[in-house]
Structure formats: structure tokens, C-alpha cells
Amino acid sequence: DERSEELINIILKTTKRGGNVIIPSFAVGRTQEIIYELNKYYDNKCSNCKRENELRKIPVYVDSPLATKATEIFRNNANVFDDEAKQFFLKGDNPLNFENLHFTQSVEESKALNLNNEPKIISSASGMCEAGRIKHQLKHNLWRKDSSIVFVGYQAEGTLGRKIVNGEKEVKVLGEDIY
To answer: Distance (Å, rounded) from C-alpha 98 to C-alpha 117?
Structure first.
């Protein structure tokens, strides 16, 4: 799919320059779609595929307790997946899990993501950047020229997410002006 390819290209370019890829995402539904799409690349068994080999080295963090719980529910109910997803399970591949996928639980684990300089992908709630851990991830990455913020969902008028998508040069995140 064209959007998945675009995401993969952004991830590879961003991490090559030492930055993080921050993905504001809704905890239920959208986060699992992101994991599902990334799984196609991370679990690709192509031994001579340079791009996939580079990608597999990049850690992916789901930084949302609700998204973690929702992903567990999705994993435990594979019987209701569509035919494509069921085929993954029949081949022995859980499409909601892959090597280098991590779920943060505690506030300390979430904060530690910003202390680690290793390039990474962080999917965090809330999707429109109005609450939750995404605000902390934006505070630590929005100003960084080497990082990328990738929006994968609708951004309602007046939300922080919409302000960023609209290219506002200054936004307030957790009471701090970010340029």
C-alpha cells in the first residue's frame, strides 16, 4: 500500500539522521493498524532485502497503557480478524507482534524513551495530541530537526494535532512554548 511505503520511507530517512519518528495515534484501532502494517516489513523473511534489514533494527514502542491493553484484546480475538490477517496466523505469524516491538507500561518507562538517544519509533496516544503521553513525546521531539511527527488520523479543528499539521511555527505543549 502506498501509505505504508511512505511511512517506511519516513522512518528510514528519520532514523538515518538520528531522529525519532513520533506517531500520535488513537489507542484502539489505529495503533493496532500501525503494528499490523509494520509487521509486514519487520517479519518479512527476505534475507537479501537491505531496506527491511535496516528497518528491523529500529525499535518500535507503543507508549500507551490503553493501546497496550487494546492490542492484547485484539491478539486474543484473532477469530474475528479478516481473511488477510487470519492467513498470517495460519502461517504462524501473529500480525500484532514482531521482534523489536515494545510496550511501555509505567510512567518511568515512558520517560526513559526520551533519555535514550537511540533512533526509534514511538506510537503514543492521544491521536489528536490533546492528552496523554503523546504530549510528552511531542515536547521532547517536536523541536528536533532530526525527528519526524507522522499523523495517521484525522485532526479536528482547534486541536494541537491540527495546529501542527497546519504548520504553526509555535505551539504550546504542557505549558511550554515549542518552536
So the answer is: 22
